[in-house]
Amino acid sequence: MNIALIGMPGCMKTTVGKRLAALTGMKFTDTDEMFETREGNTISRTFAEKGESYFREKERELVKEACRDDGQIISCGGGVPLSAECRKELENCRVVRLTATAECIAARTCGDDTRPLLSGGGTQRIKHMMAEREKYYAECADITVDTTDKDPDELARMIAEALKTEKKS
């Protein structure tokens, strides 16, 4: 079974996912990295040139493809759970939701122009996005882990332990 990491941009899905993959010996897949490799373009530039709806369509295809394989850690783009089609795909995964405070996310993403939906919005924009996405993240999550002020290696160990004791419902 796959383990999918979901959460807001800046919750360390990629960082923790790589460490969790190393810890478990599972393959690591990042849907945002898949997108950029396939498109030959950054997400930010794609948003600017082709729009968010184009990106979301391609993202749904990538999530479906990633979930087809087994035995991997999948770092999902922050908006993946917003799609009913993606939420359906995630039902076949153990889903770990990573959270952090809006202030922590703002500090982690400050000056990062690779996250088009956070660009220029600061903490207020992040709080608004968090409120919009909360129900979708909660619906998908088997386990929720707060990453605020935590070390990625410690988080990977915590998640690995939690996955041993939690059963997919």
Keywords:
globular, Rossmann fold, 5 strands, 8 helices, 169 residues
Q: In terms of per-residue confidence, which ranges show pLDDT below 50 for 5 or more consecutive residues?
A: none
Give the terminus-to-terminus CA distance.
Answer: 13 Å
Number of beta strands:
5
Q: What's the shape?
A: globular
Widest beta sheet: strand line-up: 2-3-1-4-5
The CATH architecture: 3-Layer(aba) Sandwich
SSE pattern:
EHEHHHEHEHHEH
CATH superfamily: P-loop containing nucleotide triphosphate hydrolases
Helical residues, percent = 55-70%
What is the CATH domain class? Alpha Beta
Q: Return the domain count.
A: 1
Q: Average pLDDT value?
A: 91
Report the radius of gyration as a whole number of Å. 15 Å
Number of helices: 8
Biggest beta-sheet profile: 5 strands, parallel
Q: What is the percentage of strand-forming residues?
A: 5-15%
Might you state the CATH topology name?
Rossmann fold
Structural class: alpha/beta
Structure description:
The protein contains 8 helices and 5 strands. With 169 residues, it is α/β, with parallel strands linked by helices. The chain has a single domain (2-149), classed as Rossmann fold. It has a 5-stranded parallel β-sheet with strand order 2-3-1-4-5, with helices on both faces. The longest helix is centred in the last third of the chain and has 19 residues, at 122-140.
In short:
The chain is of the alpha/beta class and 169 residues long. The chain has eight helices and five strands; from the N terminus they run E-H-E-H-H-H-E-H-E-H-H-E-H. Helix 1 (13-24) crosses helix 8 (152-165) and helix 4 (52-68) runs parallel beside helix 5 (84-90).
